[in-house]
Amino acid sequence: MKITVIGALGNIGSHLTKTLATSGHEVTGVDHKQQSVALINELGAIPSVGSLDDPDYLKRSFEGADAVFIMYPPVNYFDPDLDIIASYRKRAENYSTAILNAKVKRVVNLSSMGAHIEKGNGVIKGAFYAEQILNLLPTEISVTHIRPNSLYTNLYGYIKTIKSEKKIYAGFGTKPMPWTSPIDVAEAAAEELIGLRSGKTIRYVFSEELTGAEIAKIIGKAIQMPELKWEVISNEQLINSFRAAGMKTTIAESVGEMYAALDSGLMMEDYINNKPQIGRVRLKDFAEDFAKNSI
Questions:
Q1: In sequence order, which residues have a C-beta less than 8 Å from that of residue 99 and are 6 or more positions away?
Q2: Is there a contact between 198 and 208 (Cβ–Cβ < 8 Å)?
C-alpha cells in the first residue's frame, strides 16, 4: 500500500512510519523542516517537506495514497494570538479539502479522548470540531478517529519540578485514568490504515490506568528518586500558575477546564462505555527511556 503519514518524526509518527515501512508499505513521511529529510529516509520512508498550511502541498502529499494518517502538530500555548479551536478547525478543513482533491479513500485521524463532547472539555473541543469536519467527507471516504488519552511522553513536561522540588504538580491524579504509549497508538493506527475498514468510526487506545501516586512511584524508581511525589493542586492554582508563566487568560482557563474534566471523569465517559483492549507498553517500560532522556 501507499500511505502518507503527517508528522512522520513525531512521538507517534516516527513509530508509525517505521512500522509501516518495515512491513513493506511505500510510506511518504511529511514534515515541515528541510533538515528532516535524512531522518525520514532513515525510517525507510520517502520524505515530503512543506507547510501544512499550504493546500496545494497537502494535495501533492496525499496524491496516489491508498490511505493517510493525519494529526495536529503541537501549538504554542504561550502565543498571545493563538486561537486553539480556530486552529483545529482550519487544519481539519485543509486536510478535508486535500483528501477530497487527492481522491484519498482511507483516513486515520489522530484525535483525543474527550472529543465526544463539545462543552466542558477545554482545549479538546478543537478535536471534537475536527472530527465533525472530517465526518462530513463523502461516504465513500472512510475515517477512523484514534482517541488516546494522555501520552506517556507528556510526563517530560514535568521535568523542571521533578528536578527542582521532587514533585509533579497536576490538576488530576487522585483516581486512576488511562495513559497511553505512543508505540501503542502507532500500532493501532497502522492496523487501521492497512485494514481499510468502511464508514466513520472511533478507536480508543490506552496502555495502562494509573493514579498520580502510581506514576510518581514508577518514574521515581526509574530515575532513582524514590521520594518523588505527585501533588494534586486546585484548578484555580493550576490556571494561576499558567498565567504567571505568561499564558493568556483565555487559554489558561481552557487548559484548566481540560484538566478539570480529566479529574471529574467527564473526559472518560465515552471511553468507559467503549473500553478497548489494553495496549502492550507499560509505564515502567517508558520510564527507562524517561530516565535516559531527562535526568
A1: 62, 68, 107, 137, 141
A2: no
Per-residue cell: 285: 517500560
| Contacts (Cβ under 8 Å, ≥6 apart) of 184 | 148, 205, 206, 207, 279, 280, 281
DSSP state of 142: E
The grid coordinates listed for 62 are 496525499
User: Cα dist. 100→94, 95, 208, 224 in Å?
Assistant: 10, 9, 37, 52
Task: State pLDDT tens for residues 105-162.
Answer: 999 999 999 999 999 999 999 999 999 999 999 999 999 999 999 999 999 999 999 9
Angle formed by the axes of helices 84-102 and 125-135, nearest 10°: 20
Asked: is 2-149+181-205+271-279 a CATH 3.40.50.720 domain? The reply is yes
Q: What is the spatial distance between Cα 127 and Cα 133, in angstroms, rounded to a whole number?
A: 10
Nearest to 64 by CA among 9, 1, 6: 1
- Hey, where are the domains in the chain? 2-149+181-205+271-279
pLDDT in tens, 176-227: 999 999 999 999 999 999 997 889 999 999 999 999 999 999 999 999 999 9
Residue 230 has a CB neighbour count (10 Å cut-off) of 22
pLDDT at residue 253 is higher than 70: yes
As a whole number of angstroms, the distance between CA 253 and CA 85 comes to 13
| pLDDT of the residue at 295 | 65
* Phi-psi map region of 166: left, alpha, beta (phi>0 left; psi -120 to 50 alpha): left
